């Protein structure tokens, strides 16, 4: 890694622009254009290092974003933080932190590396120079309204996007801003691109400017790559008394080969695209930097699981297809609806879209409404809605889950990216999944977390047409197949899943570890190593998370200890409940539970050992409990 940042950021020239003037001078425009180009080049250079080290992340839309951060040199008229409701634009915040001297520019070359404090979404208190946590997407505007309430004498900026504006809480924020005449100014990047494609195609009728105007905001639509047009729009909204927005029409990642105008600009810039771009910009001599950056491979070699790995989040969709294949196209369309929330490629729905388009509904970044639409489809006893998004977003649909339960709706929910393994840091941790079990005792819903691809298929096939709410979880990371001690697959093609039943992976007399999902194979490694040392520990797979298997809990509760191992939030996960279940039944083994306890460290596989959930940490806990 180089000791200096390869592009000289000292070329950046501070500007102090006067928003009362409707036009930029030739000198101001030339300086602004040079600043934009400089930072665009730098962002392309350093975000592509994330691709080189094999991690994901986000680019930052450099041209559009940079021009606002230092636009007015923060005179007393303006609140001194420009907020952003799109956490994906994290690279912009990092390069601004470098310009402010909060981090050395060369540190940017560690983008998305574990423990670099440069994760894929900005987090207040983690990265020096980052002034707020943007969260996921479309979460900031309501908070910015509060900042505007607290600073009535200032103009408060919030950067937005056409993707973020799809979230329903932005509509609520718009109504409040207009009703209270808050001096909030939105600068919205309208590039007509989200992860799943183009909103103009999959969400016909959606128009950012018209929507905001309908709420009563002053809206100015401009061409985002035209500095004169853009400045004219900024001038107009800054000098307007009340909430107003500039909607900037532009391509995603303008000028960057391969990814311009496409959803690929959402993630880290691919090395090939970065190299082409940098060569065109006269930086061919810098492209060798990527040759010296390699992915960090996990040092862990696991006993008890296969070398082959499978993506359970994709297998979910393949399993749904197996169910739909048993129906005619007409039967499937009449009986099943699968609705997407702009994440079909990430949550397994893409394969359903491709093979069974008759049941598929493309939709936007509208988790609450989409979940309820799936529930409404499943309002009739013989119809079934299917909904899927990231587990972190489960927290957004709790009220809708309650409404679906009260209306006896049939919804199969797939929440991928559960736990912390390969998570895009803290705001994307899927660790509060037990929140889905929020019904009363007389109305039950089921939470399932399969341990390997074969079990995922079995779970989906078994519960697909069951009535009520069913939740299936998977991880972002791929998982191996669980193996028996003789090397055969524990779950084979003959395996049949039984809801509510725990499964013995290995019998034990010294005590039992209870685990599920991606932590099962890690727990199995720890258990096998203990058994090799003569400590006869058993292992239980608990794929049905919120159901007590009376026979199994009685069995393991009479042994010396029980240890629950999971990557859910230690405060709210299975471990926080299991000890109570034991005590309620008069069972008093020594008890321990391990889960996620800290904000993330970035990277990929590193998140698990950072939370002390690696096999070595599990072994230590087992030995503590067995003493």
From TrEMBL:
Q: Which cofactor does it need?
A: Mg(2+); thiamine diphosphate; Mn(2+); Co(2+)
Task: Tell me the ranges covered by the Transketolase-like pyrimidine-binding domain, including all copies.
Answer: 314-482
Query: What is any one of the record's Gene Ontology cellular component terms?
Result: cytoplasm
Q: Could you provide one GO biological process annotation from this protein's UniProt record?
A: generation of precursor metabolites and energy
The similarity comment for this entry is:
Belongs to the transketolase family.
What's the name of the protein? Transketolase-like pyrimidine-binding domain-containing protein
Species of origin reads: Panaeolus cyanescens
């Amino acid at each position: 890694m180089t000791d200096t940042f390869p592009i000289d950021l000292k070329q950046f020239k501070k500007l102090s622009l006067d928003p009362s003037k409707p036009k930029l001078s030739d000198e101001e425009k030339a300086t602004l254009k040079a600043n934009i180009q400089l930072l665009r080049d730098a962002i392309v250079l350093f975000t592509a290092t994330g691709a080189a080290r094999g991690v994901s992340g986000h680019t930052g839309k450099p041209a559009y974003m940079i021009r606002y951060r230092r636009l007015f040199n923060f005179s007393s008229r303006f609140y001194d933080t420009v907020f952003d409701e799109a956490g994906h634009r994290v690279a912009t915040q990092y390069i601004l932190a470098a310009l402010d001297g909060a981090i050395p520019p060369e540190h940017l070359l560690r983008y998305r590396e574990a423990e670099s404090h440069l994760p894929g979404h900005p987090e207040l208190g983690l990265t020096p120079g980052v002034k707020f946590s943007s969260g996921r997407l479309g979460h900031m505007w309501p908070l910015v309204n509060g900042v505007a309430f607290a600073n009535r004498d200032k103009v408060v900026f919030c950067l937005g996007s056409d993707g973020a504006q799809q979230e329903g809480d932005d509509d609520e924020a718009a109504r409040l801003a207009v009703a209270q005449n808050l001096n909030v100014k939105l600068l919205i990047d309208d590039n007509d691109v989200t992860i799943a494609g183009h909103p103009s195609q999959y969400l016909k009728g959606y128009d950012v400017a018209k929507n905001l105007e309908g709420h009563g905001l002053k809206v100015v639509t401009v061409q985002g790559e035209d500095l004169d047009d853009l400045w004219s729009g900024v001038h107009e909204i800054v000098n307007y008394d009340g909430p107003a927005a500039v909607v900037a029409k532009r391509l995603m990642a303008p000028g960057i080969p391969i990814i311009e105008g496409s959803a690929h600009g959402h993630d880290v810039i691919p090395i090939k695209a970065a190299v082409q771009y940098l060569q065109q910009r006269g930086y061919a001599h810098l492209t060798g930097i990527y040759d010296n950056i390699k992915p960090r491979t996990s040092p862990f070699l696991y006993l008890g699981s296969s070398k082959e790995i499978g993506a359970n989040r994709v297998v979910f969709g393949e399993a749904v297809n197996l169910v739909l294949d048993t129906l005619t196209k007409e039967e499937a369309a009449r009986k099943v609806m699968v609705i997407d929330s702009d994440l079909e490629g990430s949550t397994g729905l893409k394969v359903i879209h491709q093979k069974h388009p008759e049941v598929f509904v493309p939709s936007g970044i509208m988790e609450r409404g989409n979940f309820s639409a799936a529930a409404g489809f499943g309002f009739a006893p013989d119809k079934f809605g299917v909904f899927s998004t990231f587990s972190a977003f489960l927290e957004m649909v709790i009220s809708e889950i309650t409404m679906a339960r009260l209306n006896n709706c049939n919804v199969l929910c797939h929440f991928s990216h559960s736990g912390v393994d390969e998570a895009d840091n803290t705001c994307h941790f899927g660790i509060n999944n037990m929140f889905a079990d929020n019904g009363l005792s007389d109305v039950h819903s089921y939470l399932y977390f399969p341990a390997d691809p074969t079990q995922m298929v079995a779970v989906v096939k078994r519960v697909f047409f069951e009535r009520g709410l069913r939740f299936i979880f998977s991880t972002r990371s791929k998982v191996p197949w669980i193996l028996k001690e003789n090397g055969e697959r524990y779950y084979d093609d003959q395996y049949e899943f039984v809801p509510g039943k725990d499964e013995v992976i290995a019998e034990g007399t010294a005590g039992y570890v209870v685990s599920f999902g991606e932590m099962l194979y890690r727990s199995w490694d720890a258990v096998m190593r203990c058994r090799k040392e003569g400590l006869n520990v058993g292992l239980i797979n608990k794929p049905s998370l919120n159901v007590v298997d009376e026979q199994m809990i009685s069995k393991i509760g009479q042994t010396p200890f029980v240890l629950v191992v999971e990557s859910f939030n230690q405060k709210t996960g299975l471990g926080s409940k299991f000890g109570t279940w034991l005590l309620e039944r008069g069972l008093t083994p020594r008890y321990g539970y391990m889960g996620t306890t800290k904000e993330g460290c970035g990277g990929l596989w590193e998140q698990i050992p950072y939370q002390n959930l690696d096999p070595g940490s599990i072994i230590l806990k087992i030995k503590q409990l067995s003493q």
